[in-house]
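fyi for ur records
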Amino acid sequence: MDHHTPPASAPAVCPAGRSIIYLARTLRTCGVEIFGDAQEAVLCSHWSVAALEPPRPIVVQDLRDNGAMLIGALPALGSGAEPRVATQSWARAIYEDRPGSPGILGVRYSGAHDEGPCLALWEGTLPLTVVEEHPLRFAPIFQRFLIAMSEVGVAVTVAPNTECARCREAISRGHPC
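which gave:
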């Protein structure tokens, strides 16, 4: 659902300065949206979970149920199961045309893996306030995460930072992990 221009085959920095943050209502939906395709969650000490709050009430284009059809899209757009090129194209159109309201700052859709409620919020919603944040490996949260991932068939592995693909990628780009 990113609205980057030009379209990217993988997540990237948008030269037009557009930014996006993906959010999910539950730990299960968040986890399966991140790790569901790989069916494996390799967790280093840098992973965390947070409850976030926008600086003001926001308007989003709801793509669930018949919301996608109201803007001329097929209902599958709201399920998160469409190919990346299609969701990017629609996200750019929604961002640029604001069909439901000029104040739209993102989209609400159902996650592709478990149909849980998700948001993709654009740069106008930032900065979000962190209401609560915990390391994902914090025991009470980690236990909930293990149970949630087992329900959707995602294996969970705890690894040192040196074995984390996300950390290795950040380091290769010159960013500390």
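The chain has a mean pLDDT of 86. thats all i got for now
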